[in-house]
Structure formats: C-alpha cells, structure tokens
Amino acid sequence: MIPNHQSSRNSEEIIHLKDFFLKCPFVTIMFVFLIILTIGGVLKMSFIIFIILAIVQGFNLSIIYGAEIGLAPYQSVIFCLGIYTYLSYSTLCILETFEHYVKARPYIRKIKTRFTPVYYFLTHHLGRFGFFIILIPFTFLMGWWIAAALAFIADLKINQAIVGIFLGLTGSGIIALILYAEIQKVVSNPFALAAVFIGISLIIGTIMHSIIYRMRKSGKEIGCPN
Asked: How much is the mean pLDDT over the chain?
C-alpha cells in the first residue's frame, strides 16, 4: 500500500510539473538560461548582486549599485523592469498551476487569507473593471508581489495582470530615476545615498502597511462581492 501511495504522489507531482512547463515555457527556458550563464561564468558576480539588490530593495539601491558597476541609471531601471516583470509572470504561473497541488495548498491558502479582504475592499469600491485599473497604482506604491497576489485572487488573466503590473512598475522606475537625480545633487556619497533611500523605503513601507491593514479590516466587514 505504501509504495502505491508514494507512486500516486510522485505521479501527481509529475502532472503538475508538466502542466507548469506547458503553461509557462518562457519561465522555464529563461530560468535554465540564467543558470547556464551563471555556471558558465558569463553572468558576473556583480550582476548577480545587482539582481539580489533589485529583488530585496527595489529600484533605488539597484540604481546606486548599478552606477558603481558602470550602468547608467536608466539602464538599471530597464534591467529592474525585466527582473520584476519576469518574477511577476513566474509567480502568477506558479500560483495558477499549483493552486490545487496538495503540498502547495497550505501556502496558497495563506496568501488568499491575507489578501482576499483587500480584494473585497477594492472591488466593493471600484468594481471589477476598476480593480484592473487600480492594479497599476497599487503596483507603483506597494510592489509587484502584492499586485501579483491580488491579480491571482481576482482571477485576472495573466496577460492582463502583467500589463497592469508593468505599467505600475514603469511609473515606479521613473519616480526612482527622478529621486536619484535630485538627491544625488545634494548627496554624492553612495553609502549616504543608500541610507537616504532605505529611510524613504521604510517610511513608505510603514504607510503602505497601515493602508493594507485598514483595507483588510474593511474588506472582512464587506465580505465577498456579489
């Protein structure tokens, strides 16, 4: 009985992986391509650090570090846009493909529990079409991963979600460029610049966390929209 049970679990995993590869071939191909570049030494350590900074801290530190390794600020923003768009697309593909996978279900349930009230709040005040529109400034203010989670809960098509997320990311990148250009006139030291941008990020993050908390609280009271 145990071997049969183990075999059925393995079969389920294989089926979900096949579905993922068929549904999102670009994600798989790009991931393998990046691994090959890294192992082959083509992708330098400096760019790997750039990617990590982009994921962890956003546009601002990426622009600062990019300038240190010879990238123009606009080039850093373009690279960040590519990274965030790829991550958003990958996240949506993974969530949709593995939604009914037994092992992934608890984690996906946590995402839905956390952000479904926010979706209720937005659709109650804006309607479903308004939700797609709000995805743009939502990404701009709160980042790609929250926007991807909301798009998943809203059952938006991946291509629609990516358009909204990309437009929001583009707005964030433009603001980051403007802030960098203006603050650099006063603060030229890269470490001081990084400290300023981290401080700004912490303030914005605190404000956004408070807004999300209020949306969740109101969304729980509103409940599922008709």
From this structure: 77
